[in-house]
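Incident review: delayed structure delivery

Summary: a single-chain prediction request sat in the queue longer than the usual turnaround. Root cause was a stuck worker, restarted by the on-call engineer. No data loss occurred. The affected request and its eventual output are reproduced below so the record is complete for anyone auditing the incident later.

Affected input:
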Amino acid sequence: MNDKKKHFLSYFSTAVFLSLLFTSLISITVTYAGLYFKIIDFKIGDIIMRVLLACVLCVFATIIICLIATRGTTKYNNELSQAILEASKGNFNYKLDPNKDLIFKDVSEAFNKMSDELSQIEILRSDFIANFSHECRTPINSICNYAELLDEPSLTPEEKKEFVNIIISESKRLNKLSDSILQLANIGVKTIHFDITEFRMDELLKEIIVEHDNEIGELNFNYAIDEVTIKAREIHIYQIINNLLNNAIKYTKTKIFISLHEDNNIVKFIISDDGIGMDENTINHIYDVAFQADKSHNNGCGLGMSIVKKIIDLENYELEILSELDKGSTFILKIDKTKELKKA
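Output delivered after worker restart:
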């Protein structure tokens, strides 16, 4: 029962009660006045008195029903207040019984659903804090340890140079981690205000490939890129492609293939690698915050796919994942140019 129906029933009951009450009072007054001044005889008066008695009984019945309903509402309000108080304390296991009061069944079910969602968010938040703390601690410890070793007088120039390079590398990793956290937090909040522009997606893709030239190195890297023009938020397209390419480079064995083309207003960006691949469980958790398919790769922060997920949901894109253990993975980004993007 929705709020409008509940309000209607409440107003209707009040109107009926007041109407019966006023009718009874007016009828009683008129009847007694008529009998007193002998305007009506006793036989008619007897009939009227019976009618009035029925009206009075209806009034009392309405009063009793209203009192019972008010008592039930007050009791439910107390239970709901207690449930909200428990939820505010972080106790999301406190549930309301939807079958206990059918009038408020929808409210109870909505509250229980909210508690379940908040419980899942709390679990994700706890896992995120734990994983993020671990990811931060590793580069920070490395920086501190190697910085202390630089004070050793017995170090050779080569060793000092090696330690400095490690410190620089770990600092970059920590910086990358903080940037990823900011990106993840801002997607859907601030970045929604980036303008939708028309640009060449193939040119953006080539720029990203050039940025990763050193990382690609000696890998067998092939691509088939058509000229594609789209209207989108360029920053979001960049983040998706950049994160997918980072993953491919990180997990591949020898080769990467990239394809970009358009077919019937559907833009398809495909990236494949021959890396470690993923099983079904890994694919199901690939979007989880701070999740990494292979823990031995410590050069990432586990946030790339979470960022990709938030963007494709926000922009109504589609990402298909095909993967098999030890045979590599393929990611297919589909952008429907006929779908309207959310405005700022």
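Verification: The chain has three domains: 3-89, 124-186, 193-336.
Action items: add queue-age alerting; document worker restart procedure.
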